[in-house]
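Issue 218. Parser rejects a valid record. Input:
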Amino acid sequence: MIRVFLADDHALVLEGLRSLLEGEDDIEVVGTASDGDAVLDAVRALQPDVVVLDLQMPSMGGIACLQQLRAEGLPAKVLVLSAFYDGDTIQSALEAEADGFALKTEAPQQTVACIRQVYQGQLVFPQAAKRWLRQQRQRPGPAADLSEREAEVLALVAQGLTNTQIAQRLTVSDNTVKFHLQNIYQKLGAGNRTEAAGIYFKLRQEGRR
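Output the parser choked on:
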């Protein structure tokens, strides 16, 4: 059974999700909450496998809640469920180490599928978010505006660290490192780690001039 905890500040959404998931043979809803503080307390106590987390909640927003879950090393996978998929929202979820991002506007069964996928260790994002990410990757420029986390990953790649070593250094999952590397390769126009490291050293050398 996949033990799921639901967090959303709308009672209608909570009850709808609970009813939907209770019809699935392999999923058990172990609890719900409508604010971030309650989410943290419940996840600590219940130790669910997956937390379905809304971003807009009172007392503590979803991103802050997710950051705290990660800081405490709680093992639950986190699927962000949002009505918004603008660039800032997606980037914030990625930087906070979300395991997946699902839209409230998608079909309900799509959310169920996303829960199963993040439970299995997959990094899940909807097509709308992927389109935005592709647009970001196509932006021109030698460094193409690497995010702060992408720059950290690239620096560690240049030091010769493996994905697992980078994940341990940054306290993130291997999947998250792979995701950042895909973005880095696209932005730098690199085909592999060696090329990306070469571009990194070239940019550093140019920066010293």
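Fixed in the parser; the record now loads. The longest strand covers residues 27-33.
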